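pls ignore typos typing on phone
2-acetamido-2-deoxy-beta-D-glucopyranose + seq
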Amino acid sequence: MCKTRLNLKRISVGILLILQICVISLFFNMQPSYKQSSRSSVSFLVATPNNKTDSKPTTYHTSHSKILLKSINTRKLYEDFNSSLCYKKGTDIKLMKRSHNTWKCECLPGYHGIDCGQAEVIWRTLLTLRKPIQLKGRSFERRIIYIFEISEITRTISDIRLNELNQTVDLFVLYELNSDFMGNQMTYNFLKEFHDKILYLRVTKVDKLWFQVNRVIGNLKQDDLILVSGFNEIPNVAALQFFKLYDNWPEPISFRLRWSVFGFFWIHPNKTFLKVQAFTKKYLYEGLNNRLSSIISNNKTTSNFNIGDLNHYGGWYCEFCNDPIKIIDELNRLPKQIFDDGNAKTIDANYVEELIENGIYIDGKTELLRAHRFRESYFAPTFLTENTWKYDYLMLNIYSKMDYYE
Ligand SMILES: *[C@@H]1O[C@H](CO)[C@@H](O)[C@H](O)[C@H]1NC(C)=O
Ligand SMILES: *[C@@H]1O[C@H](CO)[C@@H](O)[C@H](O)[C@H]1NC(C)=O
Ligand SMILES: *[C@@H]1O[C@H](CO)[C@@H](O)[C@H](O)[C@H]1NC(C)=O
Ligand SMILES: *[C@@H]1O[C@H](CO)[C@@H](O)[C@H](O)[C@H]1NC(C)=O
Ligand SMILES: *[C@@H]1O[C@H](CO)[C@@H](O)[C@H](O)[C@H]1NC(C)=O
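k done
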């Protein structure tokens, strides 16, 4: 307990120091630019017109684009040790180079399999299959197309998804239902650093979505993976990576998601949430009659491959992971009966803050369970554990004094 407190103090002192250094260096950097401003702006103007890369900034793709997905060889993800190919990310390369037993890949903690290509959650899932499967490594990465809806209330989760999954997903299809003609969520440079990987579509009905995706992407293959998500889901990137590199698993795939509420510090007592979320293009045609919309609208489809269990998660279901004002906004869009149990309560920011502070679900009665950030390896997506500052209110219960002493 005391140790964490000390650590927190140290971290905040560290942050203050870094901020100071930034301010000081900013100050010094700005000095010369005042003196040289006229000269530098002239040379800037001269240089740009001839510069092809500068004159055409990348932007996101739309229904008018034509996208060709790349085929990427998997070879560079593996290291060749004389007799065995080992998956670099999962292998203790240093150990293997020191010892000369190169007939067997030595896996890092959290990775398994002959080539160390199976993250813990995948390995455990494979162990539970009634009929063992013969996995086959691929020579080209399977492409993953991740389709989800964006709206005012999902900006945070969307940003987390892109950051978490950018390396593994080949194309993000962000669609907006234009029930009203109010603003496009992609304005103001939303997700700017990922624009070359984003296809943004406005559709009137989800039914039309697959047709558009199929038309814009010129070279979809039968074995490309289609991943879909509702508002609250963030798939586990290590689990997803497995599908890029191996063949012969059953589908459709569900992910058993850790059910967090208000942030990653509270867990719903039901603990997990199972969602059918991924399948190949081939399966979409043959097994689902091409009805992407019925999967998205949560129509019952039984899954043949459930990734994750009660201790190892296929991802996160982060419900009401917003600030209190947006949570109220979100509640206003839900069917009323979910939180209305007769005695009308005004749901305002104060009320929501109280729920968050005390760990009470949005129904006003279900008690949530505490999660432990420094003790649990599946506390939150990696992007957030490595960049806590970006969404600190999802990592730390800022309404509870308790959390600082944890
Ligand atoms: C931009 O243009 C300048 C001048 O023509 C050239 O020296 C520079 O290499 C160009 N930069 C890029 C990234 O092409
Ligand atoms: C590779 O394997 C061959 C034959 O098994 C052996 O002679 C050689 O020493 C091995 N090289 C290394 C670097 O382990
Ligand atoms: C996203 O991933 C691609 C590789 O697929 C990489 O080239 C790019 O730099 C990444 N973008 C960001 C912002 O990390
Ligand atoms: C939680 O689990 C119980 C028992 O499995 C189930 O009856 C209930 O509907 C679940 N609650 C929610 C909100 O899904
Ligand atoms: C759900 O599935 C049933 C039959 O499988 C179908 O009749 C119905 O239209 C589907 N609903 C949606 C919203 O796609």
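The two ends are 6 Å apart (CA to CA). Residues 270 surround 2-acetamido-2-deoxy-beta-D-glucopyranose (ligand 4) (CB under 6 Å). more later
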